[in-house]
Design brief:
It is built from ten helices and no strands. By secondary structure, the protein is mainly α.
């Protein structure tokens, strides 16, 4: 029986999105974790399909949501974010050995929920006459995963606590745009995603702060140093302070965040 961490790597390497989701769903809680095993990847991670075509962020066409194509392109972009989020959860699951059992259980939960979000958006996109892969996309989320692959603290600081936390800020506005467009189903999906993403960022906060404590680091100072070292994009408001509080950011962290804006 393959361990949960080995299965996470296999799912990460899967290029086809339907196969990736199926492999995530096939991971069972009773499978062994192999927490302390140093796993080496011999294949490309993540697996990449020919579709969607990946281009630099500035080359992704901007379309107006008021048009059917623009509406579908927005839903496609959201689906691509969730697809990347599956990969991010799978990567942190297999890559970093020697963590507590709850660490791996947490990220398996995240991978499952990100797969659920992707399927919701993929299926909704089909109702708009398009399929995942029909539009170009960029790989910005994964770029930071590559940069932080050798340091778990940096990964926790700059992916869940930065890039994914940004989703807490912008999702309500995107939801409202879909609702204004008359897309009640799309808006309802984003309500589900926002609810779950609070929990995902909270998991990132939990393990970031635990690792800071283990290394004798102060959380805000460590974050600022890591953001500088790994050239993270500057965080800009407005910030969804209510959601960020629910996700475990302290008042001191929120104050520091707003000072950086």
């Amino acid at each position: 029986m393959k361990s949960i961490r080995h299965q996470a790597l296999l799912a990460l390497q899967m290029a086809n999105h339907q196969d990736k989701v199926a492999l995530v769903r096939a991971i069972e809680d009773q499978h062994p974790l192999a927490s302390d095993e140093l796993i080496v990847s011999t294949e490309q991670t993540p697996g990449l399909s020919d579709r969607p075509l990946l281009v630099p962020p500035m080359d992704v066409p901007r379309r107006k949501i008021s048009t059917p194509e623009g509406h579908a392109a927005l839903v496609h972009a959201l689906a691509h974010i969730e697809f990347n989020a599956i990969n991010l959860a799978l990567d942190i699951l297999w890559r970093f050995a020697g963590q507590p059992e709850d660490f791996y259980r947490d990220w398996l939960k995240v991978a499952r929920e990100e797969a659920y979000h992707f399927v919701l958006l993929q299926d909704h996109l089909l109702t708009l006459g398009y399929a995942y892969g029909d539009f170009t996309a960029h790989n910005g989320l994964w770029d930071m995963a590559e940069r932080t692959k050798d340091d778990l603290l940096a990964r926790l600081a700059l992916v869940p606590r930065t890039l994914e936390a940004r989703g807490l800020d912008v999702t309500p506005q995107i939801r409202d745009r879909l609702r204004h467009r008359g897309d009640k189903a799309g808006a309802a999906i984003l309500d589900i995603i926002l609810r779950d993403e609070v929990g995902h960022v909270a998991i990132g906060n939990r393990w970031y702060k635990a690792l800071c404590e283990e290394r004798g680091l102060e959380t805000i100072a460590a974050y600022e140093q890591l953001a500088l070292q790994y050239q993270a994009a500057k965080q800009r408001g407005p910030f969804n302070l209510e959601a960020r509080r629910a996700a475990g950011f302290s008042e001191e962290e929120l104050a520091a965040l707003q000072q950086l804006d």
